[in-house]
Amino acid sequence: MDLENIDFGKYWDQGVTMIMDRGPKILLAIIVLIIGLRLIRFALKVLNKGFEKRNLDPTLRPFISNLINWTLKVLLFVSVAGMVGIQNTSFVAIIGAVGLAIGFALQGTLANFAGGFLILVFKPFKVGDLIEAQGYLGVVEEIEIFVTKILTPDNRLVILPNGALSNGSMKNLTAKGQVRVDLTIGIAYDEDIKKARGILMEVMESQDKVLKDPAPFVGVAELADSAINLAVRPWCDPNDYWDVYFDTYEAGKEALDKAGITIPFPQRDVHLFEHKS
Questions:
Q1: Is the pLDDT of residue 101 over 80?
Q2: Strand 228-233 vs strand 183-187: parallel, antiparallel, or unpaired?
Q3: 3-class SS of residue 146
Q4: Domain spans of the chain?
Q5: Is the peptide bond before 214 cis (omega within 30 degrees of 0)?
């Protein structure tokens, strides 16, 4: 390329003309974008305060807020694109084509969005419920557009995809307002079953967090290899599940020890035979 024959003045004039023509539009579009994002942020704050005043279901708040947030941002970007000379029809066509490609690539994400919508419509659980799903047990902290967050008893936040939640099996331990705690305590074969049963019933009846109705229950669940396993079944409020679980085991062990009732451990009898040659 012969640099001496290039008319740099011509290209300079074209560049200046383009800047003079489009510069103010681009600058105005940037200002509108910045102001628009701040207004959207302010509007969401006002909206969330309105949700609190109207006591809107905590399950719906983050979902509606996120949905409005993304909708307003998309509309803002479309408007800004039109300000810099991009035709809305072309822009919408581009968004449609890109959206179709992204849709195929993010089928799981779309399934999670649909799952979140189904959860909000049919309400198999809500914020504050104790649920067991996807191998995790915890209290529902937040239901978002794509995921649901639960807090496990060991204070770990688990994020579950809404698609799997809406299509898989799930236990809601809070739905009926009370939950049964299933425990198993073994006693030795030579111990008095009725005595052990009475002691464990007294242990449960003495706990404030164990409900009187339904009444707690103790019965023989299994004649195991080394022990008679007793099914211990207290009922409680879902929020007290783990307190009752641990307290009943501890108090039951102490009460049985105090009464001289043995809780056996696995053992084997080994018989030796002498073979004479």
A1: no
A2: antiparallel
A3: coil
A4: 18-105, 117-172, 179-258
A5: yes
Instruction: Kindly report whether the global pTM for this prediction surpasses the value 0.85.
Output: no
Asked whether the beta carbons of 58 and 127 are under 8 A apart, the reply is: yes
Q: What per-residue string of b and e applies to 95-116 under the rule 16 or more CB within 10 Å gives b?
A: eeeeeeeeeeeeeeeebbbebb
Cα separation, 222 vs 229, whole angstroms: 5
**What CATH number has the domain spanning 179-258?**
3.30.70.100
46 Cβ contact partners less than 8 Å away, ≥ 6 residues apart: none
What mean pLDDT, rounded, does the chain reach? 81
With beta carbons less than 8 A apart as the criterion, state whether 213 and 234 touch: no
| Fold (CATH) for 117-172 | SH3 type barrels. (2.30.30)
Q: Helix, strand, coil: what percent of the chain each, to 5? A: 55, 15, 30
Alpha-carbon span 158 to 269, nearest angstrom = 46
**157 CB-near residues (< 8 Å, 6+ apart):** 141, 149, 150, 151
The dihedral sign for the CA sequence 140, 142, 143, 147: negative
Tokens of 193: 């079953």
Residues 6+ apart with CB under 8 A from 201: 216, 218
The pLDDT value given to residue 46? 84
Class level of CATH domain 18-105? mainly alpha
Q: DSSP letter at 4?
A: G
